Amino acid sequence: MADVPGVSGNDEAEPATSMAGSRRRGQVLPIVVFAALALVPFAAALGGGDFVLALVTRTMILAIAAMSLDLLIGCGAMISFGHAAYIGLGAYSAGILSSHGIDDAFVQLAAALASAGLFALATGAISLRTRGVYFIMITLAFGQMLYFLFTSLAAYGGDDGLSLASRSTIVGWRLLESDLALYYLVFAVLGGLYLALRALIASRFGRVLRGIRENPVRMQAIGFSPYRYQLTAYVIAGLIAAVAGWLLANQSGFVSPAYVGWQRSGDLIFMVVLGGLGSLSGAIIGAAAFTLVAEFLSGLTEYWGMIFGPLLILVVLFARGGLAGLFRSGS
């Protein structure tokens, strides 16, 4: 992954000076991204106010989910089409507990992580018995099973979804009622998970996972178990997406089966590809580009998807390494 020192997402040989320049730009990119995000509340105070703050908060939450999916696709070559299921588990953990009067953030997060971890362990153990298109289809099937489960929960809104009475409390304090406090909580979670994933990918675990992506037979021959490493990565990605789901429920004050549908999983894959496959900062940029362009186009026409689709195709065809790749190449 290009965000990790000494690891490049480009498999082709490049001249040493060009590669060094590209690596320097790749190291600057996350600094630029996080500096810009830190300054958004100040810019919002000058114009846009609550709308800008809410839009960028939502963008950062989706970026967390996109980073977790990038761990699977970019590092492990596991194309999951059911990743939104973990967002739904995190969101519904907050929504269901809140409907029973349990608003404590730590209790809700514990429930979100436990449910997502168990679901990822059970479904990952089965899904990873397959490869290629079969892996895509079985993860899609598990995601849709959860979607239909949530639509059948009439006590918790069914198709209509469920509104949260209030945002989560922290040790009894309603600190997250302020949009600015929620913004910086999401910002801190995004930054912490970015650093954690960066360290994980640069670790021995990450190197083995990338080795399995390139040649699982060879890695097994030298003593590594591809299944065990891939299942661990699958569970980690599910846990991170569940955190994104919990934040999303708090940000919107609402949970819905739409969070779990295959369309949301497809959106996450688009974000990862748009930003640059195999780049954590690319996942953040992809989530930002996807959200902001979709917001702009949807204000112009209800058929905005007909414009957005060709734009994505052009990026895939002509932007080597996605939007993050354009920055690294200095284009």
Largest sheet: 2 strands, antiparallel
Structural class: mainly alpha
Distance between the termini: 19 Å
Name the strands of the widest sheet in spatial order. Answer: 1-2
Question: What is the rounded Rg?
Answer: 20 Å
Average pLDDT, to the nearest integer?
A: 88
* Strand count: 2
Beta-strand percentage? Answer: under 5%
| Number of H- or I-type helical stretches | 13
Low-confidence stretches: 6-14
Order of helices and strands: HHHHHEHHHHEHHHH
Q: Oligomer, anyone? A: single chain
Helix % is over 70%
Q: Which word captures the global form?
A: globular
Q: How would the blueprint of this fold be written?
A:
Blueprint: H1 16-46, H2 49-76, H3 84-99, H4 105-127, H5 132-151, E1 162-163, H6 179-202, H7 204-214, H8 216-221, H9 226-252, E2 254-255, H10 262-275, H11 280-300, H12 305-318, H13 322-329
Antiparallel strand pairs: 1-2
For this entry, give a set of tags.
331 residues; mainly alpha; two-stranded antiparallel sheet; 2 strands; globular
Characterise the protein shown here.
The protein is an all-alpha fold. The protein has 13 helices and two strands; from the N terminus they run H-H-H-H-H-E-H-H-H-H-E-H-H-H-H. Helix 11 crosses helix 13 (about 320-330). The two termini are about 20 Å apart. The model is unreliable at about 5-15 (pLDDT under 50).
Outline of the structure:
The chain has helices at 16-46, 49-76, 84-99, 105-127, 132-151, 179-202, 204-214, 216-221, 226-252, 262-275, 280-300, 305-318, 322-329; strands at residues 162-163, 254-255.
